[in-house]
Design brief:
The complex is a heterodimer of chains A (266) and B (317). Chain A has 266 residues and is of the alpha/beta class. In chain A, 27% of the residues lie in helices and 30% in strands. The longest helix of chain A is centred in the N-terminal third of the chain and has 16 residues. The radius of gyration of chain A is 22 Å and the shape is globular. With 317 residues, chain B is α/β, with parallel strands linked by helices. Chain B contains eight helices and 15 strands. In chain B, helix 3 crosses helix 4 and helix 5 packs parallel to helix 8. Chain B starts with a strand and ends with a helix. The chains are: A alpha/beta (266), B alpha/beta (317). At the A-B interface, helix 3, helix 4, strand 9, strand 10 and strand 11 of A face helix 4, strand 5, strand 7, strand 10 and helix 7 of B. Strand 14 of chain A pairs antiparallel with strand 7 of chain B.
Amino acid sequence: MKIIVLVKHVPDAQFDRHLNGERYTTDRDESILSELDEYALEAALQLAEARGGSKAGNQVIALSMGPAGAVNAVKKSLQMGATEGVHLTDDALAGSDAAATSLALAAAVQRLGQDGPVDLVITGMASTDGETSLVPAQLAERLGLPQVTFASSLDVDGERLVARRDADTTSETVEATLPAVVSVTDQINEPRYPNFKGIIAAKRKSITTLSLADIGLDAAQVGHSGSWTAVTSAEERPARTAGTIITDEGDAGIKLVDFLAAQKLL
Amino acid sequence: MAKVLVFIDNPGNALKKSSLELLTLARSLGESVVAVNGNLNGDVTATFAEYGVGTVLRPSAEDLDDYLVAPKAAYLAAAAQSTGATIVLLDNSPEGKEIAARLGIRLNAGVITDVVGVDADGTAHKSVLAGSYNTACKASTPVSVLTVKANNVIPEPAAAASTPETATVDVPAGSTAAAARITAREQKVASGRPDLTDARIVVAGGRGVDGDFGPVEELADALGAAVGASRAATDAGWISHDAQVGQTGKTVSPQLYISAGISGAIQQKAGMQTAKVIVAVNKDAESPVFEIADFGIVGDLFDVLPQATAEIKKRKG
């Protein structure tokens, strides 16, 4: 099986995150592999391992689009067990919205399919920075592939893929024929931690760097110029401040109701 | 006047509040056209008239629900093209966003999700990075596709009712060919409580409930609230994953959020810090949740919540 996993290098949500510059792009200084992409990688590794792993010719390719630092998301993926890494990087890609990102990723997926067809593209359910969940669906539309998104389970039998998709009021069983684009939720598995062996092995794995020219796109098709949306203003929300804190002396439940009544929330 | 296309998937017997919000917003931006999928009954048609809808469109195919996302996007693209709509509004559910995503590619249109307001010139407002920024965004394309969060518009019928025209839109042939099929659909048991994302009040429990959501649910029912949970509580299996509030769960902005036994780490904070009023109950005075609570109680939720529930019932008579 040849599986491409899309991984994104995102600002660590444990710290304050900021929008910078005249176009309000995300400050990526303190970045990590998006937590939600670890589930996608784990799902790919499990599918490959169930088929005999890399020894049996199964490939799990971690693909990241982003500036120089994004190579770290690829490296972490290799440590977890991806067989090879691809870093799509070009200054012209900066500021791409979902439409431009999906255009570049679709071109990269097609390029990676030149030396053997891709069976699956797996992504996380959303990035933890932009959080729009648009890219997997747009990628499927651009590639003309079935879209199986928000999968909380995933089985592949030959060319047939079966997934479970949980919504608020229903649970759906979804079937598609490979190749397909799949996004997985954080319910699908428990991602592994890179172990010492994995970290050592990753040093020997190759990372291919692709530029825009390599995937056959022009600078004008991506980045700010190729995007169909733009952020026109951004205002930092004032941080919440602590209000009244009391210690329960046996009547805190009553005081809580008094507070709600005073706020006209009852 | 600009045409604004609103997508309403399976309206059922009566339009949901979020659909009425979309219709109200659409009318403020131009002439509204509704594209429906599924059965259309008399009451729903009457509501469209009350909300001033000019045209109601229906798909030529009846099997769109058998497939995931793609054919619905193909239908809407055809609807937008045939009506010349320049703005398309959808709900902000996961499926709404995905239909919008594919529709955007089909129409070469910019897509903006999580919208809380739209200006007359099409500029959309949203909050990003877990509520830490408010941004304004605009599509640079002739058509914009916007998915709008619930509870940001007050539904209001039109001053004068309309007599909507109806028309059928041909769903492009082949739009189901490369689509994933939905082969089974299981209805989940309804809780009878308000929907978590739309609720005016949310009562949420975390690690501190230690497997017993009873006090949280009883307080929620006394307040007519939805029940939420931290990831620790859903991961422990104490409550369904659907109840999770936070970065990998739902983002809520209720009038009141009562947090019980939740430490309030960033993961949880990301999903609720835009609530109007936050109340926190936690045994640990050092919990980060107290840094953002308007009213905090250092105490045992198993004492405080039942006492509050009893007091609310007493006052409400």
